Amino acid sequence: MVKKYKPTSPGRRDGSVIEYKKKLTTTKSQPLKSLTKGKRNTGGRNSGGRITTHYRGGGNKRTYRLIDFKYDKIGVPAKVETIEYDPNRSGFIALVCYLDGERRYILAPQKLQAGDQIVAAEDAKVKPGNRLPLHAIPVGTFVYNVEINPGAGARLARSAGNYAEVVAQDDSYTTLKMPSTEVRKILKTSWASIGAVSNEEYRLVSLGKAGRARHMGLRPKTRGTAKNAVDHPHGGGEGKSPRGHRRQRTKQGRPTGKGQKTRSPKKYSNRLIVLRRKLGKVMGNQRQSLSKK
User: Fold this and answer.
1) Fewer CB in 10 Å around end: N or C, the chain?
2) Residue 261, domain member (yes or no)
3) How far apart are CA 110 and CA 129, in angstroms?
4) Tens digits of per-residue pLDDT, 98-138?
C-alpha cells in the first residue's frame, strides 16, 4: 500500500511512502551481520577524484547486504525466514535458511512469505521463488533474476516490480520479452527465478520534497540549456536560446531522449535481439491503437 500524506506543510504536500509494516515480516533496521559489509559512498567520483557520474553525493550511510545472485546450492531446499528492506535496491530481500544450515539473502519475488520453501533445481516446481534453467520453464511464465551467461549469476530483471516473459523455446536459445519491451534470445542453459520482483508499488511513490532526494544521495540536476557552452552541448547563447542542433545530446555529446536510438550498431549482442524496444513514450493515439491490438 502507498500511503499519501495530508498537506500539513509544503514539504508534506504530494508526498507518499510505502507502508513497509504491511509488506515486511520485520521492521528492524539491523540485517544479519555475517551477510553484510561496509559500503563507501563515492559521490560519483572515480579513483582519481574526478566526477564521472554527475548529481550524486551525500545521502544516508548504508550497510551493504550480500545478495546471492548465483544460487549455486542446486537441489538444496531453503526456508524463507524473513522479508526485509534493502536500502541498496528497490525490491525487497528475503533471508533464507538452507537445509544444511547456511543462511543467504536473495531477491524476494512477489507473493513470497516467511515460512515458504524454495529450491533451485532442474525439476523444481514452477512457483514464485523457485529457480530453474530456462529450457525447463514453460512459455508464458514470468521470470526474474535472469542470467545472460550460464553460471555467471543473475543480471536481468532485478528491479522492483520487473519481470521478463518467456515467449518461445528454440534449439539452443530461449526467447524472452524484457521489461523494456525488447525481445531477445538467451542461452537456454542459463537459469532464472520464477515470478516478478517484489515491491511493485515502488514506482508509484512521490518523494514530495527535495530533502528526500538528498537523503537518497541524489543532488540537484542542472538543465543543459542553463549551462555555458563549454560545459554542455545545449549551453551558451544569449538568453533562452535553442540548443542549435537537431538532436538532443548528453554532456558527452551522445544522442539521448526523444525516442532516439542510442544502442551501438556494433554491440556484440545485437545478433541475439529479435525485436528492438519501443522508443519514447506511448501516448495518445499510439496507446489507443496498441490497446485495440
Assistant:
1) C
2) no
3) 9
4) 999 999 999 999 999 999 999 999 999 999 999 999 999 99
Residue recorded with cell 520453464? 137
Could you tell me the residue range of the domain that residue 7 belongs to? 2-201
Instruction: With beta carbons less than 8 A apart as the criterion, state whether 174 and 134 touch.
Output: yes
The reported pLDDT for the residue numbered 262 is 83
Amino acid in position 111: K
Q: Which residues of the chain have pLDDT under 50?
A: 282-293
What DSSP element (H or E) covers 288?
Answer: helix 285-292
Question: What is the DSSP annotation of 165-229?
Answer: EEEEE-SSEEEEE-TTS-EEEEETTSEEEES-BS-GGGGG----SHHHHHHTTBPPPPPGGGS-T
Residue pair 173/162 in contact by the 8 Å Cβ criterion: no
Q: Check residue 101 and give left, alpha or beta (phi > 0: left; psi -120 to 50: alpha).
A: left
Q: Coil, strand, or helix at residue 38?
A: strand
Between CA 136 and CA 266 the distance in angstroms is 32
pLDDT of residue 278: 82
- Report d(CA 92, CA 86) in Å as an integer: 6
The pair phi, psi for residue 281, each rounded to 5°, is -90, 145
56, part of any domain: yes
The C-alpha cell that represents 77 in the structure block: 531446499
Cell of 271: 545478433
* Torsion angle defined by CA atoms of residues 143, 148, 153 and 157, in that order, rounded to the nearest 10 degrees: -40
CA–CA distance, 80 with 261 (Å, rounded to integer): 43
Tell me if 23 is assigned to some domain: yes
